[in-house]
Amino acid sequence: MITAQKILIWLSRLISLPAIIFFSLFAISEGGLEIFINQGQLRVKGILFVTFLFFAAISTGVAFWSKKLGAHLLLLSGLSLMVFIFIIATQNNSLVAIVMGAPFIVSSILLYMATIKKRSREIMKIDKKYEE
After folding, report:
1. Which of 39, 101, 121, 127 is 20 to 30 A from 83, comparing alpha carbons?
2. Which pLDDT belongs to residue 77?
3. Contacts by 115-123 with C-beta closer than 8 Å and gap 24+?
4. What is the pLDDT of residues 24-62, one digit of tens each?
């Protein structure tokens, strides 16, 4: 039987994993070495962007292992990626910040909802135990 908790967990994984793969492939194919090198000088923005993407990938991996820690890390990575893109993008491109951060934030909310349902069921079992 498929429970609501399993659906939330797998939906969260199905949102964050393709998002990190897409954004990483997009950064590699569009930028490549141009992200890092600008006329012989390293670009700090490119290095920070790849660092935030790497942090989001690590957060997605941790979410497979630990739901609660993964939810917190996905929220942190989504917000940090969103703020970073919002700072470096002009006002015309600020929607890109929302598009890049939203999958990780939604994924973290779904994981957090799955852990809340699990905790509420455990609390109900404890209450029934003490009623008897």
Report:
1. 39
2. 92
3. 115/67, 115/68, 115/71, 117/4, 117/5, 117/8, 118/5
4. 887 776 666 565 556 655 567 777 888 888 888 898 888
Work out the angle at residue 100's Cα, subtended by the Cα atoms of residues 98 and 106, and round it to the nearest 5 degrees.
75
- Whether 65 and 74 have beta carbons less than 8 Å apart is answered as no
pTM above 0.70, yes or no: yes
Q: What phi, psi does 90 have (nearest 5°)?
A: -80, 175
Strands (E), the chain: 37-38, 41-42
Q: Which residues contact 36 (CB under 8 A, 6 or more apart)?
A: 42, 43, 46, 47, 50
CA 5, chain centre distance (Å):
19
Neighbours of 40 (CB within 10 A): 5
Angle, helices 67-88 vs 44-65, to 10°: value is 160
- CA 95 to chain CA mean position, Å: 17
